[in-house]
From TrEMBL, chain A:
Residues 16-80 form the Glutaredoxin domain. Keywords: 2Fe-2S, Iron, Iron-sulfur, Metal-binding, Redox-active center. Belongs to the glutaredoxin family. Monothiol subfamily. SUPFAM superfamilies: Thioredoxin-like. It comes from the Bacteria. This is Glutaredoxin. The keyword Transcription regulation does not apply. It comes from Bradyrhizobium ontarionense.
Automatic annotation (TrEMBL), chain B:
SUPFAM superfamilies: BolA-like. Pfam families: BolA. Belongs to the BolA/IbaG family. This is BolA family transcriptional regulator. It comes from Bradyrhizobium ontarionense. InterPro entries: BolA, BolA-like_sf, BolA/IbaG_stress_morph_reg.
């Protein structure tokens, strides 16, 4: 399976996927930590992919999304954005709305 | 290796001549910046598309030389 097929499979088989550096319990970059924290606040389940553990995904995801940095958040197969966009959307309440619109239940809301 | 704030501003303005660009050196180390870019060019674009436009203006520096650029884009009020 090619890297882009692997990425496609990850985002097809999980409602929310966060490509990050490290794992949610121990992020290895401030930007990844910030997005993991936001998802924790929204209290939604998500799949996380540690790009540091997989050099193919680490490079492949940048090309796949046409996005140069990590973290990257996908919801229902759609690229939402990186840390800045996720933070901006969260603060405006748009991220919770997006999840609701996509049929993802956030117990916190 | 870091990048000077003036270089970031110059690259952005090359692609968006009308842009108002405000750059802050967040940590004072020439390596962690925030940039606020206001341009008419963002009209009708999604947030992701707006950021992608700025990233492409930075000609591949983003994610490489520029590890830490917090980006905020908006339309002129």
């Amino acid at each position: 399976m090619s890297t882009s097929e692997r990425i496609q499979k990850l985002i097809d088989s999980n409602d929310i996927v966060l490509f990050m550096k490290g794992v949610p319990a121990a992020p290895q970059c401030g930007f990844s930590a910030a997005v993991a924290q936001i998802l924790a606040k929204l209290d939604v389940p998500y799949e996380s992919v540690n790009v540091l553990a997989d050099p193919f995904i680490r490079e492949g995801i940048k090309e796949f999304s046409n996005w140069p940095t990590i973290p990257q958040l996908y919801v229902k197969g759609e690229f939402v954005g990186g840390c800045d966009i996720v933070r901006e959307m969260f603060q405006a309440g748009e991220l919770a709305t997006l999840l609701t619109d996509k049929g993802i239940k956030a117990p916190a809301s | 290796m870091a990048m000077a704030a003036t270089d970031i501003e110059r690259l952005i303005k090359e692609s968006f001549p009308d842009a108002v660009v405000v750059i802050e050196d967040l940590a004072g180390d020439g390596d962690h910046y925030s940039a606020r870019v206001t341009s008419q060019a963002f009209a009708g674009k999604s947030r992701v598309q707006q950021h992608q436009m700025v990233y492409s203006a930075l000609k591949g520096q983003m994610g490489g030389v520029l590890h830490a650029l917090a980006l905020e884009t908006s339309l002129p009020k």
